[in-house]
User: What shape does this take?
Amino acid sequence: MNILDKIVLRKTEEVEQAKQLVSIKELENGAYFNRTPYSLREFMLAEDRNGIIAEFKRRSPSKGIINDHSGVVEVTNGYAAAGASAISVLTDIDFFGGHPDDLLQARAANTVPLLRKDFMIDEYQILEAKGLGADIILLIAAILTPQQIDTFGKLAKSLGLNVLLEVHNLEELQRSINPNVDAIGINNRNLTDFSVNIQTSFDLIKEIPAEFLKVSESAISDPKIINQLKAAGFNGFLIGENFMKTSDPGAAMRSFTEEMISV
Assistant: This one.
């Protein structure tokens, strides 16, 4: 059993436990359930934003603790001030050290789109994301069937949420493209062994239909790569570890952005 299998198995247990604790009606009465989500496309393409989806992540299964001292409000405020087009907040508890409360805190403190970064396997989690103040959900093709992607995408769109579909290879991309998706992310990290290869993005972008926003995810640590990815046709860039491994992630993002503009 690889790490992704272990995560999904634990997530299944976690969702069932959550359903026993908080009903769907209670989710629908959440503080943010009736707010209108921000448009990912609008922020991603805005001239005063840099296309970066900056991530708040305390740890990962492959790297262990990345940053256990920086607070979610401090970091996400820093990202927003540095021009982030969106902010990704890990809410997985067991494997990434996140918590749903992190998303609530980030929402209260920011006016940019927030991505609930988690392993979505149940419609309940989408309703939960809406109530927590998310604007975007992540659907990972590697753990979902085409039917699930269609069902989850339709539910998300009915709630006004943006949908980022994550794929890792051509097979996943071809079987998962769906009209209820706003953006397609190419994850340069192999989720079975956590190895990374930026070439994955360059190889797959030509296979993504023009109507979707195109996002490159993971393995981005050099500002020069951003410019190469832009030239290839990418609109967005999900970066987390590169910023979070520093003592001041917001300042790290500002420096990265300044270098990105100057090269």
Q: What stands out?
A: The chain has twelve helices and ten strands. The chain has a mean pLDDT of 95.
